[in-house]
Amino acid sequence: MTAQPPPTIVLLSASDTLSGIDPLLRQAGTRLVRLTSLEPRPVDPARWLDRLQRAPFPDTVVVTSRAAVGAGVEPWQRVAGPFPKSLEFWAVGPRTAQALRQVGVRRVRRPRSVGAEAVAKALGRKGRRTVVYLRSESAGKDLARALRGRGHHVVDLVVYRLGPAPRLTDEAIRELSGADLLVATSPSGLSNLRRQLDRPTFRRISRTSRLVVLGERSRRAARGHGFRHTSIVPTTTAQRFTRTLLRELRDART
Question: Mean pLDDT for each 10-residue chunk of the chain (254 residues)?
């Protein structure tokens, strides 16, 4: 009797996003295939540091990814010196929070769920703040607009851009087509996937695949690309995220 192959999850993300889930999925007998969808490219700090230095010093910094830590927080730190203990950093997810602590940031907070909208909601309950928002070009202005709408002063800075990863191989396309579950960590990753696939292949994947995304913005993007079966899985810890993925996987296979 031939053994069934293990269920497969394909993760579309930057190279080391959600790295804590790999051993947990292996232990659960699930095969994880990582496909690098986009690669971060830092913006020259000279293009945004002057604006930052001319702005009022913030009491809050919002960081949307680990790439923004390397491209934004570290160059700023080299120029400004150690951050004061009172400066509050908000990270959109656990890996971003970890990256902030690794560069010496002491006061790191996270919203109850993942994503920029969760940060806006959390800060909306607080008094007026001066906020520095470090992001990618593709992240858009929605979070800055939402924070300003809640009365905060926002310095919105693009510190890195996302460039396309190398072309998908034939093997990668086969993995995408045969996956039991797709996970996409950003709207940009979905857009890049659509650019890389021919129209019939993308249409087939979008109509038949069960897709998991990390926030409402990505779900809206998925709907715009034609994905019919999309759900949001909030990232809290690697363990909880893995358990939720496994539930989604069971649903996809029933």
Answer: 79 77 91 86 94 92 91 94 91 84 92 73 82 88 88 94 82 93 89 91 94 88 94 77 89 73
- For residues 63 and 61, give the distance between their C-alpha atoms in angstroms, rounded to a whole number: 6
Residue 226 C-alpha from the chain's centroid:
21
Classify residue 2: in a domain, yes or no: no
Spell out the alpha helix ranges (H) of 59-165. 66-68, 74-80, 94-102, 116-124, 142-149
At 67, give phi and psi (nearest 5°): -60, -35
Give the number of other CB atoms < 10 A from CB of residue 86. 8
The answer to whether 165 and 36 have CB atoms below 8 angstroms apart is yes
Task: Put residue 79 in one of left, alpha, beta given phi > 0 → left and psi -120 to 50 → alpha.
Answer: alpha
Provide the residue range defining the domain that includes 120: 41-163
Q: Which run of H or E residues covers position 221?
A: helix 216-224
Give domain status of residue 1, yes or no. no
Say yes or no: 49 and 147 in one domain: yes
What is the rounded CA–CA span in Å between residue 82 and residue 88? Answer: 13
User: What count of Cα atoms within 13 Å lies in the side-chain half-sphere of residue 210?
Assistant: 18
The two structure tokens encoding residue 40: 């971060």
In terms of DSSP bridges, do strands 60-63 and 88-91 run parallel, antiparallel, or are they unpaired?
A: parallel
Question: Do 76 and 181 share a structural domain?
Answer: no
Phi, psi of 108, deg, nearest 5? -115, 125
- Interatomic CA distance for residues 175 and 173, integer angstroms: 5
pTM exceeds 0.85 for this model: no
